[in-house]
Amino acid sequence: MLTGCRSLSWTFFSLTYRRLCTRRSLTSQAALYFSASTVSSIPPSLPSYTHSHCFFTSQRTSVPLYSSLHSLSAHCSGLMELKEVLQVLEQLAPLSLAESWDNVGLLIEPSKSRPVKTILLTNDLTDPVMEEAEAMNCDLIISYHPPLFRPIKRLVQKDWKQRLAIRAVEAGIAIFSPHTSWDSVKGGVNDWLVGGLGSGQVTVLSQALGGASHSHKLEFTVRSTEELNTVMEELKACDSETTLQHSVGRPDSSGIHASVTCSDSALTPSVQTLLRHNAPSQSFSILKLEKPPLPGHGQGRLSVLDQPVTVATAIQKMKSHLGLSHLRLALGLGQTLESSVCTVAVCAGSGASVLNGVKTDLYITGEMSHHEVLDAVAKGTNVILSDHSNSERGFLAVFREKLAVRLPVSVTVVVSKADRDPLEVV
């Protein structure tokens, strides 16, 4: 009986899901298959709901039932509020992966709540893109680069970014920016960029670390259980935003040995609390806790190619991958167009700080300074530059597929036609 019920339930799910996919006209077979390897690589330190997150590959793999039902419920739920869309975006690329200097997340939120029906994806929010968004009555703009980055003291018309922010507020359009969280996440911008030269063994250049809430471990000794309870109550008052984790060892002649972990913000008051209760003869130590690495996540990628290519072939492959007719090339010392490329390091955007010092046959990024290119060439490394946003923009179409299948059919996701790199070869 149980087997029959499972078979009937799966048949119903399959028919319903096929009907929904047909309505979306998802003609790309790659978009229908989930990568089980991506799911298994998601670190346990991330929120539990990210385990339902799957990126797409062209390889057929099994579909976890939970992930499928999650997508199905999104399809069937009808209208979607902004906060629900933001939850999906967080699942696809947690904002905790962004660099500390970045300004990511929801940058503009309308005062009046309304269902999200149209989402516009763009690499940069410019005047032509805003006109495009207004013409389609857009509800949410996802701008890869944050249009608001530095703190502002006023909103005036003379500054073009502030002017765009005012237009968004007046039109009731929300603006969200993922920026370096898309760069860092496994299956994100940098994995897409390095894939332009073909398959290979890919590793992360600058490893992302988990955002553990507890950063320090304090080890101390108290005289009695009563004093330990008092100390713990005072420590909880110091660290109200996080849950204190503590352990207690067996008492001995010197007292009761205990340890507690706390956040950066609670370190100073916690130490002061313990010093008040700790006698000079008793032990007390502070240990800095290392954040755990997040496998597959981080800035930049290095690929050992399964099939080495020549420099000339690498150029043609990247032109096709990026949709460009021209690229800039700097040949490394002693290199020619027929030299072999076995390893390649990439970083979307302005990648010199990530690529610097990496020993490889080829660098691929958007832009590098004159002297940074000279340094690479002197070491025998070839350099391909596409201009900044050209190394990122092609990922928008990939992300559109990832996002669309997780939203109801009532939500339209569009890649901007007005968005383009400000530089062109003339």
TrEMBL record:
<protein>
    <recommendedName>
        <fullName>NIF3-like protein 1</fullName>
    </recommendedName>
</protein>
<dbReference type="GO" id="GO:0005634">
    <property type="term" value="C:nucleus"/>
</dbReference>
<keyword id="KW-0963">Cytoplasm</keyword>
<keyword id="KW-0479">Metal-binding</keyword>
<dbReference type="Pfam" id="PF01784">
    <property type="entry name" value="DUF34_NIF3"/>
</dbReference>
<dbReference type="GO" id="GO:0046872">
    <property type="term" value="F:metal ion binding"/>
</dbReference>
<dbReference type="GO" id="GO:0006355">
    <property type="term" value="P:regulation of DNA-templated transcription"/>
</dbReference>
<dbReference type="InterPro" id="IPR002678">
    <property type="entry name" value="DUF34/NIF3"/>
</dbReference>
<dbReference type="InterPro" id="IPR036069">
    <property type="entry name" value="DUF34/NIF3_sf"/>
</dbReference>
<keyword id="KW-0597">Phosphoprotein</keyword>
<keyword id="KW-0007">Acetylation</keyword>
<keyword id="KW-0539">Nucleus</keyword>
<feature type="binding site">
    <location>
        <position position="392"/>
    </location>
    <ligand>
        <name>a divalent metal cation</name>
    </ligand>
</feature>
<dbReference type="InterPro" id="IPR017222">
    <property type="entry name" value="DUF34/NIF3_animal"/>
</dbReference>
<comment type="similarity">
    <text>Belongs to the GTP cyclohydrolase I type 2/NIF3 family.</text>
</comment>
<feature type="binding site">
    <location>
        <position position="183"/>
    </location>
    <ligand>
        <name>a divalent metal cation</name>
    </ligand>
</feature>
<feature type="binding site">
    <location>
        <position position="145"/>
    </location>
    <ligand>
        <name>a divalent metal cation</name>
    </ligand>
</feature>
<comment type="subunit">
    <text>Homodimer. Interacts with COPS2. Interacts with THOC7.</text>
</comment>
<comment type="function">
    <text>May function as a transcriptional corepressor through its interaction with COPS2, negatively regulating the expression of genes involved in neuronal differentiation.</text>
</comment>
<feature type="binding site">
    <location>
        <position position="388"/>
    </location>
    <ligand>
        <name>a divalent metal cation</name>
    </ligand>
</feature>
<dbReference type="GO" id="GO:0005739">
    <property type="term" value="C:mitochondrion"/>
</dbReference>
